[in-house]
Amino acid sequence: MAGGETLTQAHLRTPRAAAIAGIAFSVLLMASLLLLRQSIPADPLDRGAWLDRDPHRVVLALNLIPFAGIAFLWFIGVLRDRLGAREDRFFATVFLGSGFLFLGLLFVAAAIIGAIIAVHAVQPDGLQNSAAFSIARSLTYNLMNIYAIKIAGVFMISTSTLALRTGFAARWIAVLGYALAGLLLFGSYWIAWSFLVFPIWVLAMSLHILVDNFRRPPPA
After folding, report:
1. Which single residue of 21, 47, 56, 67 has CA 20 to 30 Å from 83?
2. CA gyration radius, the chain
3. Is 88 exposed, middle or buried (0-12, 13-18, 19+ CB in 10 A)?
4. Which residue from 175, 182, 173, 166 is spatially nearest to 204, judged by alpha carbons?
5. Segments forming the whole domain that contains residue 51
6. Is the Cβ–Cβ distance between 166 and 83 less than 8 Å?
7. Would you say residue 40 lies in a domain?
C-alpha cells in the first residue's frame, strides 16, 4: 500500500502536461518583450518621451513578467524531472545557477522600469531629463541587453550539453541550442530582435517534451 501511495504522489508532483509551463513562459515573455520594444525606444539614452504617450502597454508588459518567471521555474523543474538520476552535478549547477540568475536580472530590470513609471506619475516634470532617469534607463538597458541575454545563452549551452549527454531531449534541439546560444553570446549586439531567440528555443524544447510525454505510456 505504501509503495502505491509513493508512486501516486510522484505522479502528481510531475504531471505529464507539466511541459506546458515552458510554453506559457515563452508566450508570456515574448508578449512582454514585444510590448516593451514597441513602447520604449531602443536607445538607452532616450529622454523619456514614451512616458507621456501611453505607458499602459508598458504596465501590461511588466505585469506579465512575474507570471512568466513562475512558469520558467516550473519549466526548470520539468527539465530536472526529465534528467532524474542522470543529472550531472557540474552542468546541473551551471544550469540551475544561470536559470535563477536570468530570472533575477529580468525581475530587477522590470522593477526599475516600474519604478520609473510610478515616479513619473507623481512627478511628471521632475523625472524626465534628470540624471536619475538617465541612470535608471541605462541600467535597465544593460541588465536586459548585455547581462540577461548572455546568461540566457549560458542556460541554453548547459541545457543542451545535458541533453546530449543524457538524451532527455532530441539531439536536434541541443544542436539548435548551441547555435542560438552562440548568437546570443556574440551577436546579440548587432541583431535587434535577438531577445526573442531564448523564448523561442524554450518553446521548441517544451513542445518536444510535451509530445514525448504523451507518447509514453502512463506510469503503472
Report:
1. 67
2. 20
3. middle
4. 173
5. 20-215
6. yes
7. yes
Residue 13 lies in a domain: no
Distances (CA, A) of 122 to 108, 115, 152, 172, 201: 21, 11, 35, 51, 40
- Residues 163-214: tens digit of each pLDDT: 888 888 889 999 999 999 999 999 877 777 888 999 999 999 999 888 877 7
- The verdict on residue 71 lying in a domain is yes
Structural domains counted in the chain = 1
Tell me the C-alpha to C-alpha distance, in Å, between residue 209 and each of 127, 173, 204, 214: 47, 11, 9, 9
Q: Which of 1-5, 53-57, 118-122 has the lowest mean pLDDT?
A: 1-5
Q: Is residue 75 part of a domain?
A: yes
Please check whether residue 20 is in contact with residue 206, taking contact to mean a CB–CB distance below 8 angstroms. Answer: yes
Q: How many residues are given for the chain?
A: 220
Which set of grid coordinates corresponds to residue 200? 523561442
What's residue 97's pLDDT?
94
Q: Residue 138 in contact with residue 45, Cβ under 8 Å?
A: yes
